[in-house]
Amino acid sequence: MSGTSYSTTCPNCKKEMQTYTDWKPIDLTIHTCYECGFYIRNEVCFMTLDELNSDRLNVMEIDKPLKELPKQNKDCLD
Question: Which of 30, 40, 37, 42 is nearest to 5 (CA)?
Fold first, then answer.
């Protein structure tokens, strides 16, 4: 594995929280507090066509909507 583990302070209970970070296959950081149950995890998913077109317009100012979703490689995280 290419990751690193270390301790940080939990923003909820202020006790020690475990953090794991990795960069393969994408940047990833997981925080877990085993004292109070607070956690942060990355979510891997794809937008719907409506969500993608909305973000393209409102965030990126691309006013040409897609008619169909681009290929979604579900194996991209292997």
Answer: 30
Q: Is 39 exposed, middle or buried (0-12, 13-18, 19+ CB in 10 A)?
A: middle
Tokens of 56: 């393209």
- Cα distance between residue 17 and residue 13, in whole Å: 9
- How much is the pLDDT for 73? 82
| pTM value surpassing 0.70 | no
Asked if residue 70 has a cis previous peptide bond (ω within 30° of 0), the answer is no
Average pLDDT for runs of 10 along the chain of length 78? 90 98 90 98 91 95 94 74
8 membership: H or E segment, kind and range: strand 4-9
